[in-house]
Design brief:
three-stranded antiparallel sheet, 32% helix, 18% strand
Length: 148
């Protein structure tokens, strides 16, 4: 199984807009709920399930790239990407989009050694195949469609 939560930081943004709470309670609730979702995915879903959290980046006060969050709870108590085994980004280089998979010290990108190359085509289906192969998981059923 595979699930993609596109623009996952919007889960926090929507909660911020919909909440009637104010002050710290509002932002603590948002952070608590998002981390709760990540914890649920990590602990409650079957081991053959991969959930991709697609998230917009932002720079912190030190110029380090990180996943965008709402409020300070997550940033003060977690390194969000630390809750995941894999963190990659999309980049534009030489006229094409690619995935970057390794940190330069100021970025959160990571994956287990020898799972993914330092950069690769921006193709989630290709990345998913490599991840499943590395962890010896059953491949997803191929619908015969193009991987774009």
């Amino acid at each position: 199984r595979c699930f993609v939560i596109d623009d996952s930081q919007y889960l926090m943004s929507f909660e911020e807009m919909d909440s009637t709470k104010t002050g710290y309670d509002k932002f603590n609730s948002i952070g608590f709920n998002f981390v709760g979702l990540v914890r649920f995915v990590r602990s409650q879903l079957p081991k053959d399930t991969i959930v991709y959290f697609l998230h917009h980046p932002e720079y912190d006060d030190n110029g380090r790239l990180k996943p965008k969050t709402i409020g300070k709870l997550i940033d003060n108590h977690f390194t969000l990407e630390g809750l995941f085994e894999i963190a990659i980004t999309s980049d534009y280089e030489k006229g094409e989009y690619i995935f970057r998979t390794r940190t330069d010290g100021m970025t959160p990108f990571k994956n287990p050694p020898d799972m993914l190359p330092d950069s690769m085509p921006n193709d989630l289906k290709q990345a998913d195949r490599a991840i499943r192969d590395y962890w010896q998981m059953r491949p997803l059923v191929d619908d015969g469609g193009d991987s774009q």
